[in-house]
Structure formats: structure tokens, C-alpha cells
Amino acid sequence: MKFSGIRVLKEALTGHKGWKPLWRDPDPKPAYDIIIVGGGGHGLATAYHLAATYGITNVAVLEKGWLGSGNIGRNTTIIRSNYLLPGNQPFYEFSMKLWESQEQDLNFNSMVSQRSIINLAHTDAQRDAYRRRGNAMHLSGAGGELLSRDQLREMLPFLNFDNARFPIKAGLMQKRAGTARHDGVAWGYARAADMRGVDLIQNCEVTGFDITDGRVTGVQTTRGPIKAGKVGVAVAGSSSRVMAMAGMRLPIESHVLQAFVSEGLKPVILGVITFGAGHFYVSQSDKGGLVFGGDIDGYNSYAQRGNLPVVEDVAEGGMALMPMIGRARLLRSWGGIMDMSMDGSPIIDRTPLDGLYLNAGWCYGGFKATPASGYCFAHLLATDTPHTTATAYRLDRFNRGYVIDEKGVGAQPNLH
Amino acid sequence: MLIPHPLLGLRDSQEFTYLGDASLMNRPDPSAVTAEADFCDYVFLRDNPAGVHRELWFHEQGDRSWLIVTRNTLTHEILGAELARDLPARGAK
After folding, report:
1. pLDDT digits (tens, 9 = 90+) for A205-248
2. Which contiguous run of DSSP H or E holds residue A296?
3. Which biological processes are named by the entry's GO terms (chain B) (predicted)?
4. Structural domain boundaries in chain B
5. ipTM
6. In terms of residue numbers, what domain contains A214?
7. Considering its fold, how many domains does chain A have in total?
């Protein structure tokens, strides 16, 4: 079933009776070449790329709940490639390029909207740091430009430019950044993978790994045992729990991150704006709601809901940056579980067990990485070598001393 | 969240700074043959359990004591708190 303008027209004229479910709901087969644990954005993107890019279609995605029930539907939908470090920036730029062609590749409207991101600088030192980061972005082909205070005042007149403590001095803009329909991304990958023969198996929780002679040969699930040539784990906040079943401890803590949306308002914020003095970022959804967030709560949590001190902190950040936000009423808030790694960067690698592969540690930056994460994890599963843009994301980089610490705060996950 | 401070009673968790798993009290022996690997595990690896978790909280905006708080990471229910200094430096688990 291919989506097109003509098809929408045809369905409109025939009472919309021809639409079919986007994917099948199959029972698990006894064995697959590759099993992906986790039917979220990264797992579904991995399955899609295994089938579409690497021609491996005897693949199952096992999901404990329903497809896209985790962080892919809980984030603030921002896509960008404005990182600094050489281990990160080429990967995120690869992801940005995949976003740009995603709707055509998947034949699905994931509402990718390159409406720009602006990171605000509030001190001279911060402006210098953003200039450096902008140069790193140019080196990877991501683009980016430094905006002066006057340029910003023209674009965003509602910001508090003369805040006594945090005056706005400059901004780093990436025009190619923007937003995407987050759960639409999961559905698009799910449909495209299913169309290529991947089995998407929901309500199927992995309860153990079959390990013989240091090799993973299959998984135990709530829907029975399933054999597998290789098993890839992409379960975000649950990484430590799942890998513990294979006897592994990870350089990861699970933390809760909250997000917020206001009532629908007329268009006021064009792209994404981030406050450089506190932790606050905001964009406006196509429905009009201001979508914003800030820091993680800061303590280990699997609860998918946060506490009020961070609500207050985020609201204070918003008020400091754009006082008019005080007139908007908060509509909803929610939480998701982040796999906070020890250096703030992800892991896409083999594990000490043969046949077991790990994709984890995305902290609260996993959404923008979804396309490249899937591509690179599929590359690793298919070829047993890391993709060229993901060579730094090794599991053993901590022991070897090759951490990728964008913030430079050390092995303290709640500070990344 | 309210943390039952052993000396000060119920205190708002906002007064505290969170460090992490209480096993960080058990610093490895630097003179052991396996010290390098031990310290890698100590610095980077965590149990990260879903359920009861013993963890270090610093009463930064209070009496500046370190507490070991027992908390359920699935529900945020706090099950108890004790002064870290009351526990031996090794084998605090």
C-alpha cells in the first residue's frame, strides 16, 4: 500500500474504505537470522535498515508493549546536528542527512520540518565556545552560523535580551535543524520494515537469553523461546535490566526526563530555541502548543514520571528566557526513562558475548539520532564491523580511556 | 520527595545533591594487583536496578552530611535514610 497524493484523493472519493493497517501482527516464528529487542525508534529503524539497506529480511523485532511506546513518543521532537567532538558530530550529521530523505525513503509523512535551531549565548566565553562549535559543525558539513545580538533581536523580539544576569550576547543557528513528528517516525519505520518482511512482534517481553559456550543463540520470551543467529538490544532506559539477563553490567544509569506542552497558541516560535544560561529549550508544534523541557530530575528512576522541583526549574528557565511564556497555560507534562551513559555519548557495539549486540546510552539525545542509530546498528549486525560514523561508540572505550564527553563533566551521568 | 534525615527529620529532596549508587562508598584497594580493572568497574559500571536502590545524597543546603537513602526507583518511594558516616568505609553494602 503506497501513500501518494492520488491515493489520498481516491480514498476521499470512496469513503476511506481502502486504508489497511500499517503493519501485520504476526506470531513469532521459531527462529530468525536476527532478533532486535525493543520496538522503539532505534529498534524499528535498525530492522528497516537491515531489510532495506543490507538485504536481511528474516528479522524479528520483539516489543514488550506496543510499538513506539517508549521514548520515541515522549521526546520533544528536535532533530539537529550541532555537536562538537569528532566522535559525535559526523554521526549526527549522517543522521541529519537521513532525516532529510526520510519521508521519501519510507514513503511516510513523518513531518520532518527543518525550521532551524538557535542556541543562545549569554557570556563572551560562551560565544567563543559556540564559535568553536560552529567551526566543528562546518568541518562535518553540517553548516551553522553565528548570529549577533541585533540579528537575534530582529528574529526573536520576545526574548529577554537585557536580563541582568543572563543578557543575550549571540546565538548559534543551524538552519537545517528542526522537528519531526516523533511517533510518526516510529510508525514510518515500522511500516517500511514490515513491508520488507520483518516480523514486528508486540506484547512479547524478553525474559532471558540462551547462552551456550559464550554465544547467544536465542531468547526466552513471554511468547515462548525464539532462536536467533544474532540478537541486537535497543531498549533505551531498560538497557541495564535487559543486559543484566546476559550477566552484564553497563556504564549506564537510568534517569527520568520530563517534557511539557502548553495549550495551543498562534504561531510565535519559528524553530527551536535553547537557553544557554539555564537548561531550557522550546519549540512550537504544528498544533500550536509550546513544547519545552529542561534538565533530568537527577536521580535513578524507572518511574516514567518526575517530580515538581524540576517542573519549577524548567518554568523558571522559561520565564528568564521569554517572560511572555508566563501567560501560557501548561497543558500536559510527562516523563521518559533515559539511558544516561557515563560520558553522555552512546554505545553501538558488540558485547563480550558472541552474537549479542548493544545499542544504548543515548541519554536524552536519542530522538535526533534515530535514523543513523538504526543505520549504524544494522551495519554492525550485518557486517560485524562498525559503520564509519560510529567507530567511536565502543563499549570498552571507558576502560581504554577514550570517553566522548561533550560537556566535560566526567563519569557522573546526572550531569550530562 | 521527602527524605527522612536521621537528625533533622523529613527534608525536601531539593535541599540535597544526588551522587549515585551507595556502592561508591566501597573504593577498591589501589594496591591490589587488579586495581586498574577494579577502578574501571568502580568508576564506570553500575547495577542500575529497577526497584530498591541504596544511593548517596548530600545535604548540601542543610547540615552538609552524606546520607545513604534507600529508595524504590520504580515508584520513588523512600524506604529509609541513614548517615553515611555511621557505616564503615568498606563493605557498606
Report:
1. 999 999 999 999 999 999 999 999 999 999 999 999 999 999 99
2. strand A289-300
3. tetrahydrofolate metabolic process
4. 2-86
5. 0.94
6. 20-77+182-251+343-415
7. 1
